[in-house]
Amino acid sequence: MKILLRGGYVHTPADPHATALCIEDGAIVWTGDDDASVHFEDGADRIVELDGRLVTPAFVDAHAHLAQTGLAAAGADFSGTADLHEALDVLAAHGRTTSDAVVLGYGWDETRWPEQRPFTREEVDRALGGRPAYLARVDEHSAVVSTAFLDACPDVVHADGYDVTGRVERDAHHAVREGLFRLLPPSAREDAILRALRIAAAEGIGMVHELGAPHICPPEDLLVARNLTAAGGLPEVVAYWGELDAVDLARELGAVGLAGDLCMDGSIGSRTSALHAPYADHPHDPGHDGHLYLDAEQVAAHVVTCTQAGLQAGFHVIGDRAVDAVTRGFAAAAETLGESAVVRGRHRLEHLEMVAPEQMQTLGRLGITASQQPAFDAYWGGEKGMYAQRLGADRALAMNAFATLNRAGVALAFGSDTPVTPFGPWAGVRAAAWHHTESERVTVRAAFNAHTRGGWRAAARDEGGVIAIGAPASVAVFDVPGDLVVQTPDARVAAWSTDPRAGVPHLPDLHPDLDLPRCVMTLVHGAVAHESEGELS
Ligand SMILES: [Zn+2]
Ligand SMILES: [Zn+2]
């Protein structure tokens, strides 16, 4: 298969004036200008006239949950609800449209509702006429289930984290998830994974890191994703499994790491992230400093096991007490194995939201990638956001320290944690460049790199994420509403020249007042994974 694209703006560091590129057998074989492109017309299966559009390396989403994303896309969506009553109306209306074994709903956030509390089991029972229901909080770390769901999964009520109102967190939430896997037919999960991959492709995403774990999905999901994508024409899936002592299972599943949402702690929103000092909105309750699921010794043992097995190790880690434990664990593993062995292991940490400067130094030295979600700051950052409500402004404003981590030599890879926040790479780039905390903003180019090449590198796949001769032909074509620019959103000195003669490749103007670029085509290893109908010749 040979495809020639021309008449656009090709984002490549190799040639700032490139307007055309040629793809053959899944690789980029040439970039140049339109005049020279005539030499590549011969034998082309398709010639795409770009009409001034932008071509970039396809995005990578370095943290996704495909089945949940697909299920959420087909479930009740509470993300835009103004109060609890509206959410119950949305739920009842959704219930009337589905005959599924379990009614699913996603994205509720009681901190955005005047009632400041989630649904109760009785309210859900009434809205759905007593059907089984699973309604996940926006951070996916807690949920509310209906009475009929509990009847089908009677273990849940005995688990730690169960509340009689139907709210479940921690062990009880894990038991609920396992019950959900049993109640839904496997075909529902396969459909959901396919749906999620198509949504990703339509956003210009060519690679998804699927972060499975026992509390999130059955291991078979990783095999389903692999089978679905084997024929091409969908985003590539890099699989991770988050479980201790599971080297054989990782190999069976084709996972590249025992990493991802292997949880050190929970989430800020659910008050389950492990903190040094208590949650600010529970000041009189000294026990309220979250939950640490693994200690430094367990981390060290896991990192040693994975490094020796040639697998990436990694953890979900958010609160400062959890980051402290995970950093000490990595340092201990480096003492056992030697620093360079740990660096070569290409390990990674998910979220990494509350990091102290000395921890950044350790993580940078050990070559750890920070897999982060800029949309978390856009959703929950700032002086009045949910993080500030839970932690107080001082701790909240120091979170998601993209710029400081970058300066400490910690490589960044961006993702969405979908369905926590939706697939939306340009929104992620914008969120990082317009961080609520000005000193943690990074340039659009740095954020773009973290959402493209950074994702390939996080998976130890150093060959991709850039338009260059010989690189994998995973690229996306965008309609850009504004201008192509070199953008440094804050007033500090730019890290490179904005002078056009310097040849720095341009990117869309992502100023928050403007519309974001719109994907019209995504190619994955040269195969079409998405194309908007009737837009390209
Ligand atoms: Zn996580
Ligand atoms: Zn996750």
From TrEMBL:
Keyword annotations of the record: Hydrolase
Transmembrane intervals: none
InterPro entries, per database record: Amidohydro_3, Metal-dep_hydrolase_composite, Metal_Hydrolase
Domain Amidohydrolase, first and last residues per copy: 47-529
GO molecular function: hydrolase activity, acting on carbon-nitrogen (but not peptide) bonds
Superkingdom of the organism of origin: Bacteria
PANTHER family: IMIDAZOLONEPROPIONASE, PROTEIN LONG AFTER FAR-RED 3
Protein name stated in the entry: Amidohydrolase family protein
Organism: Nocardioides mesophilus
